[in-house]
Amino acid sequence: MTHDTDADVCVIGAGIAGVTTAYLLAMEGRSVVLIDDGTPGCGQTGVTTAHLSAEIDDGYTEIVRLHGVDGARLACDSHQAAITRIETICTQEGIDADFHRVSGYLFLSPEHGEQILHEEMAAAQRAGLEVEQLRHAPVNGFNSGPCLHFPRQGQFHPLKYLNGLIEAFTRSGGRVYGGVRATTVTGGKLALVETAPGPRIRSTAVVVATNVPFVDVFAIHTKQAPYYTYVIGARIPPDAVTPALYWDTHDPYHYVRVQRTSNAALGGDNDDVVDVLIVGGEDHKTAQASDTEERFGALEQWMRERFPSAAAVEFRWSGQVMETQDGLGFIGRNPLDADNVYVATGDSGMGMTHGTIAGMLICDLIQGRNNPWAELYDPSRIRVGAAGEFLKENLNVAAQYTSYITPGEVSSLDEITPATGAIVREGARKVAVFRDEAGEIHKVSAVCTHLGCIVGWNKAASTWDCPCHGSRFDAYGRVLNGPASKDLEKIASHSEDRANEHVQK
Question: Is 260 helix (H, G, I), strand (E, B) or coil?
Answer without folding.
Answer: strand
